[in-house]
Amino acid sequence: MFKSFTLWKRRSFKKLLSKPGERLTIYTRKNPDSDSLASSLALKRIVEHYNMDASIYYTGTIQNKTLTNVLGDDIINIPALSQSQDGIALVDLLPTELIEEKLNPTIVIGHTLGDKEGIRCAYQDIRTTGTTSSIMIEYLKKLGVAIDNRLATLLFFAIRDKTRALITNLTLPDLESYWFIHRYVDMELLGSLEHPSARLETFEDLSRAINNKTIKGASLFTTVGYVKDSGTIPKVCKYMLDIEGISTALVLAVNTTSIHIYAESKNLELNMKNVLRKAFGEWGEVTGGPFHASISIPLGVFGVVANVEKAKQLLLKSISDSISSQYFYVLGAE
């Protein structure tokens, strides 16, 4: 049974936002997707409704550049999360997911199917919905906060994006929120979000990915080699999934400091976050969810080699062989 934004919870929540002169720092997950960003913006609008200032911060990169342009100054990129003198709200991000950062949040709002025991904060709303956006739509509705077209479109797109256009991972609260918010949507803006323009680098990386692909059954592994911007690999991965007979794909990229891995699957029996954790969890933090996940692994001392032209290809082959063998091994076990 799903929790709801009850009268008691509304009173508790509004009490935290009724402190004149205070600010709220909103942190969303690393490499935030549309759901993380839309729900963070919704919380920012609610906080401002109660005359408090709020700022949204994220780490990593946003894959959909149209999202970045639409959000504009409402979001700020930072190198790392840190404790703030202001109150901290974690949106679509649980304290249990933070390994290196030690934060003391005031508010935690998100959705999860995993362990949420041991979370300590003044206010928390953690549900087993498919999206955090559906939770925030209920907040907007029950608190009577004005919903502009831009916010509505972002929330609407987030539910569509996270549930693959209402096909998978959909819960009743998501469907109810989707129906409520659709009346405010800007259809032209929605079209831009659903069909973002592709950069030239994406097609160059796609060409390398096609040439380097290895296929075993319905699973594909490929590398785009050395890149300046790893932000293209999620889109390359989606193209790989369009290949006939492919249901799961992993794309690898390397820069001078890190190995970047992104994996996605159409196979509902697989949980890609668990797959990457089993394969590479000892090497770094896995982010994402059941259908797509990513991890960045520091190159360490090999970063020096990555700057030496003669050794680059040998290093890339060693990395690719290691990653692909571990990936296919775990998929076989799954």
TrEMBL record:
Coiled coil: none annotated. This is Exopolyphosphatase-like enzyme. It comes from Candidatus Methanoperedens nitratireducens.
